[in-house]
Amino acid sequence: MKIFISPVAETDWTVDAGEFVTEIKNRFPEAIVTERTTGAHSLEWKLVDSVEGSLDLSGNTVVLDGNILDCARFAVWYRRLVPASQRLVLYDESYSADLELELATTIEELITPFVIDDLSNEEKKESGT
């Protein structure tokens, strides 16, 4: 599942890529981090048996690819790196579920909308609608 974390509104705020790399490596020593100079992302990382992620060129949108629980864990950790004044939203690729990501947001709060959406989709498949 692809999950995005970005500012709620347009902003001049950006992630300092160098500091972000240091934070990722400190928190996830096994992470493989690649800095990019071409393409749509300035950074890409892979956490062993977990989430793959990237920071877009604008420097303020994180894209995560993995199961929702691992993505939510990363998102809660990432939120603590971002200034409290910077409002963030977490959403899926189709924007079928979204939630404002606050300092007090829990992993459970983040996964619930996506689990419910997955269950609804399963029920539709089973009923043939």
Notes on the protein architecture:
The chain is 34% helix and 26% strand. It is built from 3 helices and 7 strands, in the order βαββββαββα. The chain has a 7-stranded antiparallel sheet, covered by helices on one side. β4 (52-56) and β5 (62-65) form a beta hairpin. It is globular. It starts with a strand and ends with a helix. The mean pLDDT is 88.
Helix content: 25-40%
Biggest sheet, strands in spatial order?
A: 2-3-4-5-1-6-7
The number of E-state strands comes to 7
Radius of gyration: 15 Å
Sheet with most strands? 7 strands, antiparallel
Order of helices and strands: EHEEEEHEEH
Contiguous low-pLDDT stretches (5 residues minimum) are: none
Overall pLDDT metric: 88
Distance between the termini: 22 Å
Tell me the strand percentage band. 25-35%
Distinct helical segment count: 3
Shape: globular
- Oligomeric state as shown: single chain
Structural class: alpha+beta
Summary?
This protein has helices at 17-27, 68-79, 107-127, and strands spanning 2-7, 32-35, 41-46, 52-56, 62-65, 88-92, 98-101. By secondary structure, the chain is an alpha+beta fold.
Task: From the structure above, extract its key features.
7-stranded antiparallel beta sheet, 129 residues, globular, 3 helices, 7 strands, alpha+beta, 34% helix, single chain
Write the layout of secondary structure elements.
Elements: E1 2-7, H1 17-27, E2 32-35, E3 41-46, E4 52-56, E5 62-65, H2 68-79, E6 88-92, E7 98-101, H3 107-127
Antiparallel strand pairs: 1-5, 1-6, 2-3, 3-4, 4-5, 6-7
